[in-house]
Amino acid sequence: MLENFWYAVELSHEVGTKPTPLRLLGHDYVLYRDSHGMVIALDNQCAHRGASLALGWVEGNCLRCPYHGWSYETNGQCSHIPADAAGTPIPKRARVQSYPVQEKYGLVWIFVGSQDLPADRRPPIPDFPQFEAPVRPATYSRHEFAAHFTRTMENAIDTSHALFMHKGAIGASNAPQNTEIDDYEVTVSDYELAASLPIKVNRLNGVMRFVLQQDDPEAHKTYRFALPNVTYSAVQFDRYKIESIMVHIPVDDETTVVKSVNIRNFLNQVPGLGHWLDGNTAQVGNKIMQEDDVVVKTQVPQIAPYQDMRQELLVASDATLIAYRKLLKRYSVPSVLPEAVLPLEQTAG
After folding, report:
1. 57 in Cβ contact with 66 (< 8 Å)
2. Any idea what DSSP says for residue 146?
3. Tag placement on the chain: N or C end, fewer CB within 10 Å?
4. Residue 9 burial (10 A CB sphere; 0-12, 13-18, 19+)
5. Which residues have CB under 8 Å from 82's CB, separation 6+?
6. Which residues face 45 on adjacent strands?
7. Residue 225, strand partner residues
8. What is the pLDDT of residues 279-313, one digit of tens each?
9. Side-chain half-sphere of 160: how many Cα atoms within 13 Å?
10. 67-86, pLDDT tens digit by residue?
11. For 286, which DSSP code?
12. CA 9 – CA 137 distance, rounded (Å)
């Protein structure tokens, strides 16, 4: 499902000259940096005997297999077979598939799908300009869910569960009282959706209570989903904002690794306090994901039923989920991609 998209698959700082294994949608890849610092993505199994290239090492621009020493160029072509005599032609089949790679927002993205698809027909990487050069280096969170990525993504844009699931991490509420969600607008484009809703908490917990000194009746949260595996949240209290890009890495049907990149617009120039807040932000992010995992992994069916909305009973407060499932259904067949990348603004209520 969801082929011919740029998947966010790893944090940039976690990829170096030591090969990094990556399992995505049940397929094994290997990532590494060449001599120019560029991230290279190849199939992980050596063309010779199927050994894991991630157990090998990098020599210049090449990746050498640990089993028999076959060396692969950045385009996946084998350039050296140590056991063959000098001058022996290298078989044409001595190659592994390579994949297009980009780095943006502190993340590594690889294009998964038809390598023959023209660049102008590849859906774009979502736009997050505020993450290009943040005032302070981002913080990061990680959690492994025992759930399908369609479930973890829709959980991230679910607008009504936080007052029940995250009282400890976010703040006190009167749930199940004062939890009504007014009708809200979901903005939908070719590959994305977004919505913004008030935050209904009576008393904030953690660092935001320290910063604000009092609750903000105008506090709100922005939700965003971008195909194929990215969600975004921005929590705004008064003039203070915390933003997170969450990438839902679909390891297989039962496992999703969620990694987040987090930035804020306050306390960025106070060394000691800023460092403490970095740790607190990561800690709260991890706590929220741990709380979500307890419930998300119990959902049936395992894959969000985007092909048939009638399998679950969605209501008005689930407007983001309805739009999300429509996007999944639309693009679950690669042939529906437009002839070229289209403008992104279109609004649906």
Report:
1. yes
2. S
3. C
4. buried
5. 68, 69, 70
6. 52
7. 193, 231
8. 887 888 889 999 999 999 999 999 999 999 999 99
9. 17
10. 999 999 999 999 999 999 99
11. H
12. 20
The residue count of the chain comes to: 349
SS3 59: strand
| 303: helix, strand or coil | coil
Instruction: Tell me whether strands 98-99 and 39-43 are parallel, antiparallel or unpaired.
Output: antiparallel
Listed in sequence order, the DSSP H helices in 205-255 are 207-212
CATH 1.10.1200.10 for domain 5-121, yes or no, is no
- Give domain 129-336's CATH number out of 3.90.380.10, 3.30.980.10, 3.40.640.10, 3.30.465.10: 3.90.380.10
Q: Which two tokens stand for residue 182?
A: 């007014």
Distances in whole angstroms, Cα of residue 342 to Cα of each of 1, 115, 224, 333, 339: 21, 20, 19, 18, 9
CA-based nearest residue to 171, from 183, 179, 162: 162
| Residue found by looking up tokens 């910063």 in the block | 211
Q: Is the pLDDT of residue 344 over 80?
A: no
Sign of CA dihedral 158, 111, 55, 49: positive
**Cβ atoms of 247 and 302 closer than 8 Å:** no
**DSSP H or E run through 107:** strand 107-112
Task: Give the domain ranges of the chain.
Answer: 5-121, 129-336
Q: Which amino acid is at 197?
A: L
DSSP secondary structure, 298-318, as one string: T-SSSS--TT-GGGS---GGG
Cβ-Cβ contacts under 8 Å for 309 (sequence gap 6 or more): 322, 325
Mean pLDDT value of segment 232-247: 93
Q: Are 157 and 272 in contact (CB under 8 A)?
A: no
Q: Give first-to-last CA distance, the chain, whole Å.
A: 27
> What pLDDT band is residue 219 in, cutting at 50, 70 and 90?
confident
| Token pair listed for 157 | 């844009």
Token couple for 144 = 């492994």
